[in-house]
Amino acid sequence: MRNKILIGETASGKSTYGKKIAKIEGKTFYDLDIETEKEILKKGYGETINEAYKKLTKEEISMMFEKTFEKLIEEENVVIATGGYFGTYYNFEKIKEKADIIYLKPSKELWLNIIKELQTKLHLKENQNRRILFEKDKEKVEAQYDKREKLYKEKATKFIKYNSFDELNNTIKKKPKKQKTKKESLKIIN
Fold first, then answer.
1. Fold topology of 3-173
2. Measured CA distances, 76 to 67, 71, 73, 80 (Å)
3. Tell me, what DSSP letter sits at residue 107?
4. pLDDT digits (tens, 9 = 90+) for 103-136
5. Euclidean distance between CA atoms 138 and 36, whole angstroms
6. Whole-number pLDDT of residue 134
7. Cβ distance 20 to 117 under 8 Å?
8. Phi, psi angle pair for 12, to nearest 5°
9. Is 75 helix (H, G, I), strand (E, B) or coil?
10. Among 63, 92, 137, 189, which has the minimal tally of Cβ within 10 Å of its Cβ?
11. What SS3 class is residue 157?
12. Beta partners for 159?
């Protein structure tokens, strides 16, 4: 089976969806943000990821994401959820032969509501991966959605559009239940 790479905006459901399809398809799931952060901390750039991000340039962070991704994509039977920013700049052409690049595209209205909800509920410290969660100017948030949408469309081999997370979950094809053999179905009576 082909690997699956999930691209899309921050908070579009890539990790949640990725875990579900990986489980159903018997694949290994990786969250690129988490795997890269592990690598950054392993290399001793800081005690916490926020501390490390303060020490590294944007280019150094991007390079760490690329190296981590390229290591993960070499594996077979994986589902990788990328960060929102990663999907905008990475050149996926060289891996399209062995992976489907799936753009998870929530409607603009759903995504804006998710961002607004996260902004009011979460008490996060700003870091370089989640800046959109701290942007208060709605026009800037909308502009990011529009700009990134074009980039994701150019890179994706498949698209999943949805207006709710229930709609997204309904796109997951469950494995059919294993049929019992005739022998398993019969009760043996002694």
1. Rossmann fold (3.40.50)
2. 17, 11, 7, 11
3. -
4. 999 999 999 888 888 877 765 544 444 566 667 7
5. 30
6. 67
7. no
8. -90, 0
9. coil
10. 189
11. coil
12. 103
C-alpha distances out from residue 172 to 1, 81, 123, Å? 16, 16, 32
By the 8 A CB rule, do 3 and 73 touch?
yes
Whether residue 12 contacts residue 106, with contact meaning beta carbons closer than 8 Å, is answered with: yes
186: helix, strand or coil: coil
The span from the CA of 57 to the CA of 128, in Å, is 10
For residue 87, give every residue at least 6 positions away whose Cβ sits within 8 Å of its Cβ, in sequence order, or none: 7, 8, 103, 148, 151, 152, 155
pLDDT at 136: 74
Q: Mean pLDDT in the chain? A: 84
How far apart are the C-alpha atoms of 56 and 50, rounded to whole Å?
10
Structure tokens at 138: 């709605």
Tokens 């009760």 label which residue?
Answer: 187
Q: Whole-angstrom Cα distance, residue 42 to residue 30?
A: 17
User: Which amino acid would we find at residue 22?
Assistant: A
CA nearest to 8, candidates 66, 126, 88: 88
